[in-house]
Design brief:
- By secondary structure, the chain is α+β, with helices and mostly antiparallel strands.
- 65% of the residues lie in helices and 6% in strands.
- The protein has a 4-stranded antiparallel beta sheet. It has a two-stranded antiparallel ribbon with strand order 5-6. Strands 7-8 form a two-stranded antiparallel ribbon.
Length: 489
């Protein structure tokens, strides 16, 4: 079977289990998950969906999220969209929409707190940038390696241009996505944000100092684009329709541009500088303790959706310093999860269902995709989720300790973790030393997560409940056989 046929087969297997094409109101994907808007949640066959070999788990938020893993999800999503488009006209979508309206409204109300909605919008702005950050980050790492080795000197300038071009203009992309997310014209958001990186701003004085290109970075671009959206909406409301095409874009760029130059660039620049200094101070003076807390609390933050607040901070640090020192520490949470899963595997030798889940999810866990282990193993068991966090805390403390000793470990992009982060590592010392510290942190996370789970992750009652003979489908060996159905004469 070709790759395209395989991806289409995965999409075809998923579609009927989520209620068919008529039950799909939206389709999107992130790094690892296929995100579906559903008209009627009750039509989803959760257990059958989780049993598919290609499905690593499901997550329910404002959308129904099916974990397929990095790479796979980007290829399956277009096939899924095509199947929905082909089949949708055959279904009475309006009927399904009315049936599921109450369910959808209740689910939205549960998740739509103002703070979570704000964080979700922030994520929607930055997550689409992650593929470019990863690609450029890996090229930057390769270029640095070639420069250090003195190899291919005629090629390294070209690689440097490829690696740096996107970062030089990242403010424009942030402005574009921000305007799009907040309901404005995307290109106007990009146009206003482009002011921040324009070299000519070096001729302008504001707040008693000369501006520098890029001052304010992604935070300035975010603020400038949001302002542009509000100016544009005001113009749409008050400008005569006959003049709208000329006046609205002009006023949008003029007003928000002036505010950006003579206000936002300075303010956002000070905030960005403070973020960088705070991260450096924290890890230099309290690195072990800070790493312990960050590594231990990251999984609960992910569960609550609060980790999205860190995305602009990561991006700001990458823009300022070339790498984010926070991501390698936070990545230790996944190491603790892997160690905990291996302990669960040994503690439940008779539970074929959980052991099968662990065997299928561990490879993804080593590569930093933690959802299958979280939602399929540790979280349902309870205590192993807590002990997995303990493993992440010790791994984070290990990396943080070396930051206190002057060895910074950073990532040139956000998104990957686990072993997948190795190609993106950078720091203030040699690459070999940086890799060794990160690898040591992973090993500490694995061992601490394993030990904490093996010795403290199971109560007597939990073992009695889960360490029972089951087949790979989760059916207990001691379960009573189903009563035969009576055949009507």
């Amino acid at each position: 079977m070709s790759t395209d046929d395989k991806n289409r087969a995965i999409a075809a297997a998923i579609l009927p289990l989520v209620g068919g094409a008529g039950n799909i109101s939206s389709v999107a994907h992130c790094m690892t998950r296929l995100r579906l808007g559903l008209r009627d949640r009750s039509l989803v066959r959760d257990e059958d969906l989780k049993a598919l070999p290609s499905v690593m788990g499901v997550v329910e938020d404002d959308t129904y999220q099916i974990v397929l893993g990095p790479g796979t999800v980007a290829r399956v999503t277009p096939e899924f969209e095509a199947l929905v488009a082909e089949a949708a006209p055959q279904h009475a979508a309006e009927d399904l929409a009315s049936q599921g309206a109450a369910i959808k409204a209740a689910q939205k109300a549960k998740n739509a707190t103002p703070f979570k909605l704000f964080l979700r919008r922030i994520a929607n702005i930055f997550v689409p940038l992650i593929p470019a950050l990863i690609g450029c980050g890996i090229i930057a790492g390769l270029n640095g390696l070639l420069v250090n080795l003195g190899w291919l000197p005629s090629v390294t300038p070209a690689l440097a241009a490829m690696a740096s071009g996107f970062m030089a203009l990242i403010a424009v992309f942030v402005g574009y996505n921000t305007a799009k997310e907040f309901g404005g014209t995307a290109i106007l958001g990009g146009a206003v944000a482009a002011i921040i990186v324009f070299p000519g701003v070096a001729k302008i004085d504001a707040f008693g100092q000369t501006l520098s290109p890029g001052q304010g970075g992604v935070l300035g671009a975010l603020g400038a684009a949001v302002l542009a959206v509000y100016v544009e909406k005001w113009c749409r409301r008050w400008v005569l329709e006959a003049l709208d095409v000329l006046v609205t874009p002009t006023l949008t760029v003029l007003v928000s541009g002036l505010v950006t130059i003579f206000g936002l660039m300075f303010v956002a620049g000070e905030i960005s500088r403070a973020i960088g200094e705070a991260a450096d101070w924290l890890l230099a003076n309290a690195g072990a303790g800070a790493g312990f807390l960050l590594g231990g609390l990251f999984l609960p933050l992910v569960m609550l959706g609060l980790h999205q607040a860190l995305i602009p901070i990561h991006t700001t640090l990458i823009e300022q310093q070339g790498y984010t020192v926070l991501l390698p520490i936070l990545a230790m949470a996944g190491a603790g999860q892997v160690g905990a899963a291996m302990a669960v595997y040994l503690k439940l030798p008779r539970n074929g269902s959980i052991r099968r889940t662990i065997k299928s999810a561990l490879p993804a866990g080593f590569l930093g995709v933690g959802e299958p282990l979280i939602y399929g193993v540790s979280l349902p068991l309870g205590r192993p989720f807590v002990t997995a966090c303990v493993g992440g805390a010790f791994g984070g403390g290990f990396v943080g300790l070396f930051s206190m000793l002057g060895d910074k470990v950073g990532s040139t992009a956000i998104g990957p973790s686990g072993w997948a982060l190795f190609p993106l590592l950078d720091g203030n010392k040699g690459l070999g030393e940086t890799i060794a510290i990160y690898a040591g942190g992973l090993l500490v996370g694995y061992l601490a997560g394993f030990a904490a789970t093996y010795f403290f992750g199971f109560s007597k009652e939990l073992l009695e409940e889960f360490d029972v003979e089951t087949d790979e489908e989760g059916v207990r060996a001691d379960a009573p056989a189903p009563e035969p159905e009576l055949v009507k004469a």
